[in-house]
Design brief:
five-stranded antiparallel sheet, signal, mainly beta
Length: 216
């Protein structure tokens, strides 16, 4: 099942519904927070790399450079109208969006605390975070240049309704759902390389990830 395409259709419907309401407004916010959690292929020796210090465009196994997973975040905007829906989107690379035969998919989780190395996760369902999208990316269906969308309507609706001053930001983690939590034990046809390449942040520190909130 192609989750990203389903989300695209869902978001188009939301936009059409919004167009029927002349008071509807879309608020757009670029990702300005986050970075990489870098580790050994088995998840040990984790460290955090700020988005200010590197491009954010790899998830998975990177050979002798270990494993990387992405965390990116947004400053939550104030809303003048009633919250209706929300989606986060970003693009995959136009070439080699998936490379070196990744045998794992990528899941998306949401949280509000400042990221640390304790947020590293390699494996199936993480009970400590809110699952936003299961199998968001897959070697079976993710395409070069594809726009990936994550429906965050339910998550942000709850967050805005119960929002406190400590919840001014929200983060999304994109991590491998490797079955045994160890990226050194999978299909290594290209020497410990197996990765996805979303364009979350560039070397110029410009974000390509955007949060779109529809209000009434």
């Amino acid at each position: 099942m192609r989750h990203s395409k389903q989300l695209k259709r869902s978001y188009c419907i939301l936009i059409l519904l919004g167009a029927l309401n002349t008071n509807a407004k879309t608020i757009e916010t670029m990702a300005t927070l986050g970075g990489y959690i870098k580790s050994d292929l088995d998840g040990k020796n984790a460290s955090f790399i700020s988005s200010e210090d590197t491009q954010i465009n790899f998830i998975g196994a990177l050979g002798k450079n270990g494993a990387r997973q992405i965390i990116f975040g947004f400053n939550l905007p104030s809303l003048n109208g009633k919250f209706k829906s929300a989606v986060v989107e970003f693009d995959m690379r136009k070439q080699d969006a998936t490379s070196s035969f990744p045998w794992f998919n990528i899941d998306a989780y949401g949280f509000t605390h400042k990221p640390t190395i304790d947020d590293l996760y390699i494996g199936p369902l993480d009970q400590t975070k809110v699952l936003l999208a299961n199998d968001l990316m897959s070697n079976q269906w993710t395409q070069n240049g594809e726009t990936i969308q994550i429906d965050v309507t339910d998550y942000l609706n709850k967050l805005y309704r119960g929002r406190t001053t400590s919840e001014e930001n929200f983060y999304i983690r994109l991590n491998p759902d490797d079955p045994d939590g160890d990226l050194s034990t999978g299909d290594m046809r290209e020497g410990n390389f197996a990765r996805y390449r979303p364009l979350i942040g560039t070397k110029e520190n410009k974000s390509s990830a955007i949060l779109k909130i529809l209000t009434d």
